[in-house]
Amino acid sequence: MLTLVPSFTMNANDDQHQSDAHHEEATHHENNEHDHEALPHSEEEGYNDGVNSKEEVAEYIQHHLGDTHDFIFFSDEAAGHHYGFPLPIILVDNGLKVFMSSEFHHGDKVVKKGDTHYRLYHGKIYKTDAEGTIQYDEHHHPTNAKPLDLSITKNVFSILVISIIMLLLFRSLAKGYKNGPIPTGFARVLEPLVIFVRDEIARPNIGEKKYRKFMGFLLTVFFFIWITNLLGLTPLGINVTGNIAVTICLALFTFIIVQFSGNKDYWKHIFWMPGVPVPMKIVLAPIEVLGMFTKPFSLLIRLFANITAGHTVVMGILAVIYIGKETLGTGGSIGVSLFLTLFINVIELLVAFLQAYIFTMLSSLFIGMAVEEHDHH
Amino acid sequence: MTTIPGLVGAGLIVIGAGLGLGKIGGSAMDAIARQPEAANKIQTAMIIIGALLEGLAFGALILGK
Question: Keywords on this record (chain B) (predicted)?
Answer without folding.
Answer: CF(0), Hydrogen ion transport, Ion transport, Lipid-binding, Membrane, Transmembrane, Transmembrane helix, Transport
